[in-house]
């Protein structure tokens, strides 16, 4: 895995803390999202491909995909890249890594 395709929880929290407006896509299921989230759009991985035409992002925008531990979001990153998105980053360690820092 290439490092530019990953973002560490520390960098993500630092950027959010500075008030940066990030394009977050949480690919967990709706119930998981409503249980705990850090914002962003909730597009479950199972719905991602069908939702591609309605995404509000430009293909060059930085998009950070997140899930619980980083596996589903890594799959989502690959799907987005296959469809021409060029700046997609996976949250390394997922929301578990974020919660450990809080």
The helix/strand order is EHEHEHEHEH
As a whole number of angstroms, the C-alpha radius of gyration is 12 Å
Taking pLDDT < 50 over at least 5 consecutive residues as the criterion, the unreliable ranges are none
* Shape type: globular
Spatial ordering of strands, largest sheet:
1-5-4-2-3
Give the termini distance in whole angstroms: 26 Å
- Overall pLDDT confidence: 96
Percent strand: 15-25%
Number of strands: 5
Separate helix tally: 5
- Let me know the largest β-sheet: 5 strands, parallel
Computed structural class: alpha/beta
Q: What helical percentage do the residues reach?
A: 40-55%
Question: How would you explain this protein's 3D organization?
Answer:
- This protein is α/β, with parallel strands linked by helices and 102 residues long.
- The protein has helices at residues 9-17, 30-35, 45-51, 71-82, 94-101, and strands spanning 6-7, 23-26, 41-42, 63-66, 88-91.
- Strands 1-5-4-2-3 form a 5-stranded parallel beta sheet.
- α1 crosses α5.
- The N and C termini lie far apart (26 Å).
Secondary structure: elements and pairs:
Blueprint: E1 6-7, H1 9-17, E2 23-26, H2 30-35, E3 41-42, H3 45-51, E4 63-66, H4 71-82, E5 88-91, H5 94-101
Parallel strand pairs: 1-5, 2-3, 2-4, 4-5
Descriptive tags:
5 helices, globular, 5-stranded parallel beta sheet, 102 residues, single chain
